[in-house]
Amino acid sequence: MHRLGDVLLLLVFAVAGRSSHELGLTPLGVLQTAWPFAVGTAVGWMLTWRARRWWVEGLAVGGMALAVGMLLRVVTGAGAAPAFVVVAAVVLVGGALGWRAVVQALSVRRRRV
Predict the structure, then answer these.
(1) DSSP string across 12-47
(2) Which of 4, 16, 61, 111 has CA atoms 20 to 30 A from the CA of 95?
(3) Is the pLDDT of residue 36 over 90?
(4) What is the DSSP letter of 98?
């Protein structure tokens, strides 16, 4: 379940970024934008495969998506402008925490009913 949420977050991030910069929204274009962050997300998954707390997993997955994604962008010449790093941090870390918080709240509520 968590991997699907993270993949959807990455796709929304890539589509929104490409759209805001008037780049093509082709499947290949979206994948070209998303791949560095997908690699970082996979690193986060590997680091948290035994995490017991949703917020630890969210911070690690979002943080790795950001850190590894930006590193790969710099290494491949795509760049990492400071404003982009800030926006990406808010979206990737905030999104990874945010959707997990919603799922957690709904599951707690469901257990009480």
Answers:
(1) HHHHHHHHHTT----HHHHHHHHHHHHHHHHHHHHH
(2) 111
(3) yes
(4) H
